[in-house]
UniProtKB/TrEMBL annotation:
Belongs to the thioesterase PaaI family. Residues 56-132 form the Thioesterase domain. This is Uncharacterized domain 1-containing protein. NCBIfam families: unchar_dom_1 (TIGR00369). The lineage of its organism: Bacteria, Pseudomonadati, Pseudomonadota, Alphaproteobacteria, Acetobacterales. GO terms for cellular component: cytosol. It holds the Pfam family 4HBT. It comes from the Bacteria. Keywords: Hydrolase. InterPro entries: HotDog_dom_sf (IPR029069), PAAI_dom (IPR003736), Thioestr_dom (IPR006683).
């Protein structure tokens, strides 16, 4: 028996990458690698663009990864005629990620309601150790001028 998908809008990693061109997402090298039935996965290199002066992943960049995945996931999980906006985000930084590694991030839902959604992203180092866990809350809003369908 297959698991039903959470997504109400269709997308592929390639279509998301194309849409992210010339944005902070592409500037940071965040790449969506997998769209599962209820999760998104992404990778990002940790190079000179991503580190603090001590040459480890900057916490603000981890938050940008989480905001990216959570916002995309929330958008894909609302029906046509709706969009989402982030209204709160938090992050706990657990372990440093040295420059030269690649991180993997996975985002899953906590709550996908009609007016708000909450998504959690775990960012892991190359050795699998949890580097950051972050949660974003998004408001679900009707598109301006659209006739929303629920």
């Amino acid at each position: 028996m297959s698991t039903p998908s959470l997504w109400k809008k269709s997308a592929t990693p390639e279509s998301l990458e194309a849409r992210a061109g010339n944005t902070a997402i592409s500037l940071l090298g965040i790449r969506i690698t997998e769209i599962g039935p209820d999760y998104l996965r992404a990778t990002m290199p940790v190079d000179h663009r991503h580190v603090q002066p001590w040459r480890v992943l900057h916490g603000g960049v981890s938050v940008a990864v989480s905001e990216t995945l959570g916002s995309i996931a929330a958008y894909l999980a609302v029906p046509e005629g709706f969009h989402v906006v982030g209204i709160e985000i938090n992050a706990n930084h657990i372990a440093p990620v040295p420059e030269g590694q690649e991180v993997t991030a996975e985002c899953r839902p906590f709550h996908t309601g009609r007016s708000t959604q909450v998504w959690q992203t775990e960012i892991r180092r190359a050795d699998g150790r949890l580097a950051c866990v972050s949660r974003i809350t998004c408001a679900v809003l009707p598109d301006p001028g659209a006739e929303p369908r629920r």
